[in-house]
Amino acid sequence: MTETTEPSSTPRSLSPRVRWAVPAVAAVAVAGAFVAPPLLASAGAEGLPDVTPAELISSVAAAQPVPMSGTLVYTARLGLPEIPFGEVGGADPIALLGGSSTLRVWTDGTERSRVSLLGSVSEYSVVRDGAEAWTYSSADEEVVHYALSAEDQARYDALAEQARAGTLPEVAGGLPTPDEVAGHVLAQAEQFSSVTLDAELTVAGRDAYQLVVTPKADAETLIARTVVAVDAETSTPLRVQVWSTQDADAPALEIGFTDVAFEAPDDAVLAFSAPADASVEDVEVPLPSAADLAQVPSAKDAQELPPGVTVTGTGWESVTEITGLDVANLVAGDPAALTSVPGAGKTFGSESAQDLIEEFAPTDENGQHGVPDLDTSALYDQLTTEVPEGRLLSSSLLSVLVTTDGRVLAGAVPADTLRGMA
């Protein structure tokens, strides 16, 4: 394990709540302190039946969830600055933005699952059991419990029973078949990419196909290609790699199984009980009413962008521009500033959910929002570069420009593309 020296502008320790509350604008630029080698996969897996890209996509779309357990290695090589957070060897979700992390996953293939981010001295887990969920940080001994109200739980149980009985209402127009889904996905991808199958291989001891999506040669994008390894028997994705045009030696993002078993995990693994010494935060999650569901926009309406959002270009070269954001207060961690995000409401679900948001960034004795123990404005300045147009965040897969007149431009394009559009 390699120790790192923290810069003087970065606090040496953060309060437990704050470590989970770094504003998204700043957190997106946090990187880990080490880089692991790429995941290894053996070539071969000869003798698999021949398939086309469309047939492989269709098999993934048609695949039913299956019981499974396994170990995943996640590695990010985004070229972001090294800024240490939390304890050395601790399990911190922020570490997923840089370096290598290990996760364990379990699922019964229906409504119960657990995902644990493992550190050498702690873990962070997310557990789901039907309509309930828990997050648990062993380092902080904190549990957050998400659940429905008694009334909503009764509605949820009734809907679940209808689903098991196959008596749910028909969807207007019907659902597309897996083949139709595959055809649509392939048609959309082939407008801007080539979609091919690479050599068959073995991942985590499983024979797998490889689907490769490569932007067309004239596309000005940071993405070189995306490679998905799909289990030949269950059609479960076993590994995903995203390669950058800036590095031909290793993928910029990679997540894949190092071991996997497609069998039901032990019931004790999927059950959750808060440790005796842990603090528990209860959050009531509202279940949408029938009236709410009736107001869900149609597929056509869902494609319409909210006011303040525009998209320039197509495919891999698309650049999204947002106006009207309260960037300064978003960086400062003020939850009220989230209402400046286009399409966002003024509250976040239930009252308890709103309270949890407020706790992430409480007010001080003067009534001003802020995150204690962390100067997020200074951190934002440290993680971005000053350019004539504003502040620039560059990574191997994404560029973000916050202009001096308050606009935000983002895309999987070179930084100079955004600067030219500003």
UniProtKB/TrEMBL annotation:
The lineage of its organism: Bacteria, Bacillati, Actinomycetota, Actinomycetes, Micrococcales. It comes from Cellulomonas cellasea DSM 20118. InterPro entries: LolA/LolB/LppX, Sporulation_related. This is MucB/RseB N-terminal domain-containing protein. Gene3D superfamilies: Lipoprotein localisation LolA/LolB/LppX. Keywords: Membrane, Transmembrane, Transmembrane helix. The chain crosses the membrane at residues 20-40.
